[in-house]
Write a structure and sequence with these properties.
By secondary structure, the protein is mainly alpha-helical. It has 22 helices and seven strands. The longest helix is centred in the middle third of the chain and has 48 residues. About 50% of the residues are buried.
Length: about 650
C-alpha cells in the first residue's frame, strides 16, 4: 500500500531552511565578495600579473571580434574599414585616456559610477546612480544575451552541426544562458586561468585567419582595386566618404565594450610591494598598462578584420540569414582554411563568447551589491550571489526571447549601454581633472565628452531599441529601489553605535540610580531657559519622577539619502544640561539604535520621552522618508518593535 501521507510541516520547514541557506550562502556586507571572475580577492590573496588580468577583461573585449566585423559591414558597407578607423581614433584618443583617468580616481573597481556619486550630494546623487545602473544593466545584460546569440550562430552555421539544430538559435541561446546561470549557482572558481587559455587560443586562431586572408588578398590582385572602384562609384569624393564614415561609426561603438570591465577587475591586479589601500600606485600603473595593451591589440585586430571581411566577403552575405551574418571571421576560416580548422575556430569563438557572458554576469554581481543595498534600495539578500544570478538569468531570458536571439537587433541596445557608461566616465574625468587644476586636460576630456555625447545621440536616433531597453531597466530599478527603501524604512539602519568617553560617563552615571531616562530634543542650539522649559514640560506631561537625572538626545540629519551608517555619540555638558549628540541619516532610526545600545551597555531598559509633532500624519511620514525627520515618536517605537521582538527588553517610548 502506497503511503500518501503529506510531509510533515517540520520536514517542509527543514527543506525551506536548507534552500534558504543554499541561496544566501556567502551573504556578506562586503561588496564584490562573490565567486565570480571579478570577485574581490581575499586578504591573503596577492593578486595576479596585469597581463593575466587583461585576459579576464579580454574575454569580454576581444570576443567582440566574433560579431563586430559583420555589424560594421552592415552599418558601413564598403566604407567599413574607414568607419573602423574613426572608431579606433575614438578608442585610442578618447576612451583610453578617459579610463586611464578612471583607474586613478577609482582604483578599487568602483568605476565611473562611484566617481559621479561623489560629485552629486543627497538624493540627486542617488537618483543619478540609479539611472546609470540602468544603463550599466543594459550593457551587461545585452553582453550576455548578444554573446550567447552569436555563439549559437556559430553552432548552427558549422557544417558538422546536426540538421535538427538549424533554425534553433533561440533555444540554443537560452540553453547557453541557462548553463551560464548554473555555473554561477554552483560556484565560479578561479576564472583567470581559464580566461588566459581562452584568450591565447582565440587570438592565435584569429592571427591565422587574418594572415591567411591577407595572403588571399595579395594573391588576388583585383580584390583591392575592385573594392576601391565600387566604393568610389558609390561615394563621389573622399570628403563624402569621410562624412559617411563619421555618421555611421556610432553603430560600431560596441567595439569599445571592454573598458568598463577593465576597470572593474582592478582589485585582481597584484600592483607593487609599496601599495596601500589608500594609495595603490602600482595597481593604478599596471591597470593603465592593461588598458593600453588591450586597446592596442583590439585596434589592430578590428582594423585587419574589417579590411579582410570587406575585401573577401560579398556584401549580401552579411545580411540577416546570410552565411557571414554574425560570424564574418568564421566564414573566412571555413572558406580558406577548411572545415576542420573552421570548426576549431567555431569552438574557440563559442567558448570565449560564452565566457564573455560570464564576465558580464560577474560585472553585474560586482555592481548591484556595491550600491543598492547601501542605499536601502534593495533587500539584504541582494548581497548574496545566487538570488541575483536567478534574477539576472531570468531577465536575460526575457531579453533573448524579445530579440529572438538576433545579434543585429541587439547591437543597438548594447551600444547604448556602452556609450552611456563611456559618456559618464568622460564627464566624471573632466570634472576630476578640472578640480585638480589641470586646465588643458579638462579641455581635452570635455572634447571627448562632446564626441561621446554625439555618438550616443546618433546611436539612439538610428536605433532607439537601446534607449527603450535602458529606459525599461531604469524605470524598473527606480521603482523597485524606492519600494525597497519604503519597505526597509523602519529597519534599525545602524551597523555600529559607539559612545565617546564623555557620553559613556554620562550614561553610566545617569543609569546608576535606575533606568536611564532620555529626552528626545530638536537638534539646534538652545538656551538654558529653553532646556529648563523642555525638561519641565516632559516631567509634567510624561510623569518623569522628580529628582531623577535625565539626558537630552539630539540627532543631526547629515544626509537623509544615506541609508546605513555607523553612529558615534558625543557627550557634551552645556546650558546646565547633559546632552548626547549624534549625526545620522534619520532621526527616529538613530534614536532607536542609541536606545538599544544604551540598554546593552547598562543592562537596564531605558526610557525615551517625546513630544507629539504638529501636522498631518501622512505628510509627516513623507517628511521622514525624504528628509529623515517628521513623525519621530511613532516611527521610533515601530523601529524598536521590529528590532527587538521581546517587549520586556524593548526600550520604553513615552509621548506627551
Amino acid at each position: 500500500m502506497t503511503d500518501t501521507t503529506p510531509p510533515s510541516s517540520g520536514t517542509r520547514g527543514e527543506l525551506t531552511a536548507r534552500c534558504r541557506t543554499w541561496l544566501l550562502n556567502g551573504l556578506t556586507e562586503q561588496p564584490a565578495q562573490h565567486p565570480g571572475p571579478h570577485r574581490a580577492p581575499t586578504p591573503e590573496h596577492r593578486g595576479h600579473r596585469w597581463w593575466r588580468v587583461m585576459c579576464l577583461t579580454g574575454v569580454d573585449y576581444f570576443s567582440t571580434l566574433g560579431y563586430q566585423p559583420g555589424i560594421a559591414a552592415l552599418a558601413a558597407g564598403l566604407l567599413s574599414p574607414l568607419a573602423t578607423l574613426v572608431l579606433l581614433a575614438l578608442t585610442l584618443l578618447g576612451a583610453l585616456p578617459v579610463y586611464r583617468r578612471v583607474a586613478k580616481e577609482s582604483p578599487h573597481g568602483e568605476g565611473s559610477i562611484a566617481m559621479l556619486e561623489r560629485l552629486l550630494p543627497w538624493w540627486a546623487g542617488k537618483l543619478f546612480v540609479l539611472v546609470l545602473l540602468g544603463f550599466a544593466a543594459t550593457d551587461f545584460i545585452i553582453t550576455i544575451t548578444l554573446s550567447a546569440a552569436d555563439a549559437s550562430a556559430h553552432v548552427v552555421e558549422n557544417p558538422y552541426a546536426p540538421q535538427w539544430l538549424h533554425g534553433e538559435n533561440l533555444w540554443i541561446t537560452l540553453v547557453l544562458i541557462g548553463l551560464l546561470g548554473a555555473v554561477f549557482l554552483k560556484g565560479f572558481r578561479e576564472a583567470i586561468g581559464v580566461a588566459v587559455v581562452l584568450v591565447a587560443v582565440y587570438l592565435t586562431l584569429n592571427v591565422v585567419v587574418l594572415a591567411t586572408s591577407a595572403w588571399q588578398v595579395v594573391n588576388e590582385p583585383r580584390v583591392v582595386p575592385d573594392w576601391w572602384d565600387a566604393m568610389t562609384t558609390e561615394h563621389s569624393s573622399p570628403f563624402v566618404m569621410i562624412g559617411v564614415a563619421l555618421l555611421v561609426f556610432p553603430k560600431l561603438a560596441l567595439g569599445m565594450s571592454g573598458f568598463e570591465t577593465g576597470v572593474a577587475v582592478m582589485p585582481q591586479i597584484k600592483g607593487g610591494p609599496q601599495d596601500t589601500y589608500e594609495h595603490p600606485v602600482g595597481r593604478i600603473r599596471d591597470t593603465r598598462k592593461l588598458l593600453t595593451t588591450a586597446a592596442l591589440i583590439m585596434s589592430v585586430f578590428l582594423l585587419l578584420s574589417s579590411l579582410a571581411t570587406t575585401l573577401l566577403i560579398p556584401q549580401d552575405d552579411f545580411k540577416a540569414g546570410g552565411p557571414a551574418n554574425g560570424r564574418a571571421l568564421a566564414y573566412l576560416a571555413h572558406r580558406y582554411l577548411g572545415e576542420g580548422f573552421g570548426t576549431a575556430y567555431d569552438v574557440s569563438t563559442i567558448c570565449i563568447l560564452w565566457f564573455a557572458g560570464a564576465s558580464a554576469l560577474a560585472g553585474l554581481l560586482n555592481l548591484v551589491p556595491r550600491f543598492l543595498p547601501r542605499y536601502g534600495m534593495a533587500p539584504e539578500w541582494t548581497r548574496a550571489v545566487r538570488p541575483l544570478v536567478l534574477v539576472f538569468v531570468a531577465i536575460a531570458t526575457v531579453i533573448t526571447w524579445y530579440f529572438d536571439a538576433n545579434v543585429d537587433k541587439q547591437s543597438g541596445a548594447y551600444a547604448t549601454g556602452v556609450l552611456v557608461l563611456m559618456l559618464s566616465a568622460s564627464f566624471a574625468s573632466t570634472v576630476a581633472v578640472r578640480r585638480a587644476g589641470h586646465r588643458r586636460a579638462a579641455i581635452g576630456f570635455a572634447v571627448i565628452t562632446v564626441v561621446f555625447a554625439y555618438t550616443l545621440v546618433a546611436n539612439v536616433i538610428e536605433r532607439p531599441d537601446g534607449i527603450k531597453i535602458a529606459a525599461l531597466f531604469i524605470v524598473t530599478i527606480v521603482l523597485t529601489s524606492f519600494a525597497s527603501r519604503v519597505h526597509r524604512a523602519f529597519e534599525l539602519r545602524s551597523a555600529e553605535v559607539d559612545f565617546d568617553t564623555t557620553a559613556t560617563h554620562f550614561v553610566e552615571e545617569a543609569a546608576a540610580g535606575g533606568p536611564l531616562r532620555i529626552i528626545a530634543n530638536a537638534p539646534s542650539e538652545h538656551t538654558s531657559a529653553a532646556y529648563r522649559l523642555k525638561e519641565y514640560q516632559q516631567r509634567q506631561e510624561t510623569h518623569i519622577p522628580d529628582g531623577h537625572p535625565v539626558l537630552f538626545l539630539e540627532v543631526f540629519v547629515k544626509d537623509s539619502s544615506d541609508f546605513t551608517a555607523d553612529l558615534l555619540v558625543h557627550g557634551e555638558e552645556k546650558h546646565g544640561v547633559r546632552r548626547l549628540r549624534v549625526e545620522a541619516a534619520t532621526v527616529p532610526n538613530a534614536i532607536a539604535a542609541v536606545l538599544l545600545r544604551v540598554r546593552d551597555l547598562t543592562g537596564d531598559v531605558p526610557h525615551a520621552y517625546f513630544t507629539w509633532t504638529e501636522g498631518a500624519p501622512f505628510g509627516r511620514l513623507l517628511r521622514f522618508l525624504v528628509f529623515g525627520d517628521g513623525e519621530t515618536a511613532p516611527v521610533t517605537r515601530e523601529v524598536l518593535r521590529r528590532a527587538e521582538p521581546d517587549p520586556e527588553r524593548r526600550p520604553r517610548v513615552h509621548v506627551g
